[in-house]
Amino acid sequence: MPLLGMIGAASSSTFGSGLSTDGGGPAASQTDYSGVLSTIGLGTNIDWFYTSMPSGPRTMQNYIASFGKNSSSVNDGSTAWNNGHATLGRVDVYGWHGYFNYGGNDGNIRIFRGDGGYDSNDWAVFDFYHANNHDFAGNVNNSSGRYSGGESYSGGSGGIGAFGNGSSRLRLWGFSASNGGWNLLYEHGMSSSGGTSHSNNNGSWYSTGSTVVNGQGKRSAYDTMQITAFGFTASTQ
C-alpha cells in the first residue's frame, strides 16, 4: 500500500510525496511527513494541515506569548475575540475523517478566538471552525467543536464518532529544516472523554517550562525550536 493510503489522505495523491527515509538532511521539506508518520504510526488514518509561522523562524511559545494572553484572559465579546486575534490560511489540508476539511470550512485557523459574545473563559487557543461555536465547553462533541486548548476541555471531537474516545489525539507540530523536518510540539486528547488537562487554563500554552517527553503535554521543542511552519494532526491514537 502506498504511504498515501496508510496515513488516510484519501483525497490526494501527493501527500507524502517528499518523504525521505528518516526525515533528515537535505530531503527534509514541508511536504516530508516522516516525523509525523514515525510518531503516530504507519497505518493510522490521520487528518492534517499546516500553515506558515508568522515572522518565522520563531518558537511556538514566542508566537503564542506575543498575543499577551494567558489563562486569566477574558473573552469580552470584542471583534478581535469574535473573529480571532489572528487568522492564518491552512496549507496542505487532508482528512480521512473530515476534521479540518469538513463541508463549509473556510480554509483558515484562528488564534485566541472566543465563542461569539462576552463569556469570560469561553475561548480557544486554536480554533479550526469557520464560525463562532457559541460554547466551547458545551459543544466539545458537536460539529462546531473543532479546537485545541478550549474552555474546560483540551480539544473538541468535531462531532466525529471516531474521535469521541479517550485515545484520540490532537497533535501540534512545528517545522524546522535544520531539525529534521516536522517535530512534535504538543499532544492532548479530544472530546469530553479526552480530558481537561490542556484546556486554555493550562499555563504551559503561554509560558516556558512544564514539558514532558511522552504522552499528553507540551514538548520542549514548543519552547525552544525555531520553526517556519506549524500544523495539526487529528488521529484515533
Provide an overview of this structure.
- Helix content is 12%, strand content 26%.
- By secondary structure, the chain is α+β, with helices and mostly antiparallel strands.
- Strands 4-1-12-9-10-11 form a six-stranded antiparallel β-sheet. Strands 3-5-7-8 form a four-stranded antiparallel β-sheet.
- The two termini are 20 Å apart.
- The N terminus is likely disordered.
What is this entry, summarized?
This protein is of the alpha+beta class and 237 residues long. The protein contains five helices and twelve strands. The strands form three sheets. A six-stranded antiparallel beta sheet has the order 4-1-12-9-10-11. A four-stranded antiparallel beta sheet has the order 3-5-7-8.
SSE order and pairing:
Elements: H1 3-7, H2 34-40, E1 46-52, H3 60-65, E2 75-76, H4 79-83, E3 86-89, E4 91-95, E5 108-114, E6 118-120, E7 123-127, E8 147-148, E9 169-176, E10 181-189, E11 217-218, H5 220-224, E12 229-235
Antiparallel strand pairs: 1-4, 1-12, 2-6, 3-5, 5-7, 7-8, 9-10, 9-12, 10-11
